[in-house]
């Protein structure tokens, strides 16, 4: 574990909080640096996870920064109590997201085999607009079935996101952020649409 600055005294903390209220960025820095021991203390509870200590410290620090930015001196608990809760919440969000992500469909999960008996994943099928790749990896039937599934299983927005994301039908490939800008929605929402749509396509292929 890293060596962190000692906690501020009660008086020093009150002074920093007052300066922070007046817009002093140095006070904000001091409050964050001198509360890193608190982050390390909370992180110890979650060391037996899939994340190493450095990752957890980084995420916990985000929680601490949020706590310092939003703490109200004249209401609620002390800064340490409030910050500890914010740090823990940030770590728990990470762990919940990881648990959910681990259950998501992977583009590289096998969904069948090609004419040579080689395993084929969903990403192979999605990228089949290239005829040379098509001949090497998968039967023409798979493309027809994918196009059918694309039209039948996906809603209009899902079709648009998948088409833009993977450059289907001769179109340009876009990043999630670019798609978000084009559609006027958040990048995280684009990500959720993409994952849901891919899950639908994979489910359709597994029914074959």
What can you tell me about this protein's structure?
The chain is mainly alpha-helical and 208 residues long. It contains eleven helices and two strands. The chain has a two-stranded antiparallel sheet with strand order 1-2. Helix 1 runs antiparallel to helix 2, helix 4 packs across helix 5 (79-102) and helix 9 crosses helix 11. Residues 128-139 have low confidence and may be disordered.
In short:
With 208 residues, this protein is mainly alpha-helical. It has 11 helices and 2 strands.
Keywords:
208 residues; mainly alpha; 11 helices; 65% helix; elongated
- How helical, in percent, are the residues? 55-70%
* Number of DSSP-assigned strands: 2
Largest sheet: 2 strands, antiparallel
Order of helices and strands: HHHHHEEHHHHHH
Report the structural category: mainly alpha
* Strand order in space, largest sheet: 1-2
Shape descriptor: elongated
Portion in beta strands: under 5%
Q: Counting H and I runs of at least 4 residues, what is the number of helices?
A: 11
Low-confidence stretches: 128-139
- End-to-end C-alpha gap: 52 Å
Average pLDDT over all residues: 79
Global Rg = 25 Å
Secondary structure layout:
Blueprint: H1 10-21, H2 25-33, H3 36-43, H4 53-70, H5 79-102, E1 110-113, E2 119-121, H6 122-126, H7 131-137, H8 140-153, H9 156-166, H10 176-183, H11 187-206
């Amino acid at each position: 574990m890293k060596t962190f600055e000692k906690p501020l005294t009660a008086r020093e903390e009150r002074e920093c909080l007052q300066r922070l209220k007046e817009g002093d960025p140095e006070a904000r820095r001091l409050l964050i640096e001198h509360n890193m021991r608190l982050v390390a203390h909370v992180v110890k509870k979650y060391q037996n996870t899939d994340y190493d200590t450095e990752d957890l410290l980084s995420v916990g620090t985000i929680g601490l920064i949020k706590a310092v930015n939003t703490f109200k001196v004249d209401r609620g608990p002390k800064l340490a109590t409030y910050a500890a809760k914010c740090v823990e919440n940030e770590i728990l969000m990470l762990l919940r997201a990881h648990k959910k992500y681990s259950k998501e469909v992977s583009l590289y999960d096998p969904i069948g085999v090609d004419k040579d008996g080689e395993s084929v994943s969903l990403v192979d099928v999605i990228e089949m607009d290239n005829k040379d790749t098509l001949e090497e990896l998968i039967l023409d039937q798979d493309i027809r079935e994918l196009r059918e599934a694309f039209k039948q299983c996906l809603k209009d927005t899902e079709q648009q996101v998948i088409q833009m994301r993977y450059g289907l039908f001769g179109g340009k490939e876009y990043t999630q952020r670019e798609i978000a800008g084009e559609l006027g929605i958040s990048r995280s929402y684009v990500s959720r649409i993409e994952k849901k749509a891919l899950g639908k396509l994979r489910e359709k292929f597994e029914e074959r």
